[in-house]
Each structure stands twice: as structure tokens, then as C-alpha cells.
Design a protein that fits this description.
This protein is α+β, with helices and mostly antiparallel strands. Helices cover about 25% and strands about 5% of the residues. Bound molecules: heme C (3 copies).
């Protein structure tokens, strides 16, 4: 009985400390699967975020974590387009100015790009 409880405690503490292993230099962290954001009012379609696709372009997890996004879904605040135009959330890079790997990242502030994130 005691051992089982100890096992549970170790597991829970391990899960709680998990994010700390993302500290720069720490290796071996699984990249989460694609996920869909909870849709805000009047959003022109659901937004899927792909870690896999970003990984090809953004080499370090620390570029987004944890300055821009926290390590748990739904805990970084509500992403609004207004906030993105101020350089928050996806707008930290998707502003039509920021260069990643020598290429300017497409902006959220152009009707031609809405569908690149909001898929119908
Ligand atoms: C780089 C990706 C990206 C682009 C480009 C983008 N959006 Fe969004 N947008 C998001 C994310 C992420 C959310 C939050 C999740 C949701 O509401 O579906 C969001 C939310 C929204 C919302 C609801 C919240 C709010 O701000 O009112 C609206 C409306 C919206 N987008 C409209 C647009 C329009 C119109 C365009 C094109 C001019 C656009 N978006 C381009 C990623 C993007
Ligand atoms: C381009 C930005 C970006 C990069 C780079 C990035 N992430 Fe994320 N990550 C996100 C976003 C956005 C979320 C969701 C945050 C939220 O909803 O509050 C997230 C969430 C997570 C979560 C929580 C998943 C869940 O289901 O709660 C983990 C774990 C994670 N990322 C790991 C990583 C690892 C490991 C890397 C590097 C290989 C990485 N991320 C690189 C944007 C990024
Ligand atoms: C650290 C910078 C950074 C942040 C933050 C970021 N992205 Fe990106 N994203 C990139 C780069 C770089 C590319 C590749 C640029 C290109 O193809 O023009 C990209 C590409 C994309 C693409 C196109 C992927 C494809 O090839 O189909 C989508 C969709 C996208 N991002 C959505 C998002 C959403 C939604 C968020 C916020 C939750 C976000 N990004 C946050 C850097 C970022």
C-alpha cells in the first residue's frame, strides 16, 4: 500500500516538474501533436497549430517557450487578433517583419493570409 502511494507521489511530482526539463540545454522532449485552438467569436475558421511544421523553421523550443507561450494548452491567455497586431501570441513572429531563417514570416494583418491559419 505504502509503496503504491509513494509511486503515485513520484509520478505526480515528476509530472509537475516535467516542464522544468525544457530548460535550455535539456534534451529529449516530445513534441506535442497538432492541436486546434478554441475558436473565438467570429473567427473565420478553426486554427490548427502544428509543432511539427514550426519545428522545421524554428529550431529552438525556447523561442516560443515560455516567453510567448506557456507549456500547457489554454494557459497563455486568449489569443486575439488585436493582441497579435501588438506582437503577442502568434504575432510575435507573424507580423510581416520578423525574419526566421532569413525569411520574413507572413503577417496576420492581411486578408490574403487569414486562411493560412483559419482553415474552413
Ligand atoms: C498566424 C495565424 C493567424 C492568422 C494569419 C490569422 N489569425 Fe485570426 N486567430 C488566430 C488564432 C490562433 C486565434 C485564436 C483561436 C480562435 O479564435 O480560433 C485567432 C482568432 C481570431 C478571431 C477571434 C478572436 C478575435 O480577435 O476577435 C477572429 C475574429 C480572427 N482570428 C480573424 C482573423 C482574420 C480576419 C484574419 C486575416 C486578416 C486572421 N484572423 C488571421 C491565428 C491567426
Ligand atoms: C512557434 C511557437 C512554438 C514553438 C517553437 C514550440 N511551441 Fe510548444 N506550444 C506552442 C503553443 C502555441 C502551445 C499552446 C499554448 C497554449 O495554448 O497556451 C504550445 C504548447 C506546448 C506544450 C503543451 C501541450 C499541451 O497539450 O498542453 C508542450 C509540451 C510543448 N508546447 C512543447 C514544445 C517543445 C518540446 C518544443 C520544441 C521542440 C516546442 N513546444 C516549440 C508553440 C510553440
Ligand atoms: C517563433 C516564431 C513563430 C511563432 C510565435 C508562430 N509562428 Fe507560425 N510560423 C513561423 C515560421 C518561421 C513559419 C514558416 C514561415 C513561412 O512559411 O512563411 C510559420 C508558419 C506557420 C504556418 C504555415 C505552416 C505550413 O507550412 O502550412 C501556420 C499555419 C502558422 N505558422 C500558424 C501559427 C499560429 C497559429 C501561431 C500562434 C499559435 C504561430 N504560427 C506562431 C514562426 C512562428
Amino acid at each position: 500500500m505504502r509503496q503504491t502511494r509513494l509511486g503515485t507521489l513520484v509520478l505526480v511530482v515528476g509530472l509537475a516538474l516535467g516542464p522544468l526539463t525544457f530548460a535550455p540545454g535539456a534534451a529529449q522532449v516530445k513534441t506535442p501533436p497538432d492541436f486546434v485552438f478554441e475558436q473565438g467569436k467570429d473567427a473565420p475558421g478553426p486554427v490548427t497549430f502544428s509543432h511539427e511544421k514550426h519545428k522545421e523553421k524554428v529550431d529552438k523550443c525556447t523561442v516560443c517557450h515560455t516567453k510567448v507561450f506557456k507549456f500547457k494548452r489554454g494557459t497563455s491567455g486568449t489569443p486575439t487578433m488585436a493582441a497579435m497586431k501588438e506582437g503577442k501570441f502568434c504575432g510575435a513572429c507573424h507580423d510581416g517583419k520578423t525574419e526566421v531563417g532569413g525569411k520574413v514570416v507572413f503577417t496576420t494583418d492581411d486578408k490574403a493570409n487569414c486562411e493560412r491559419c483559419h482553415r474552413k
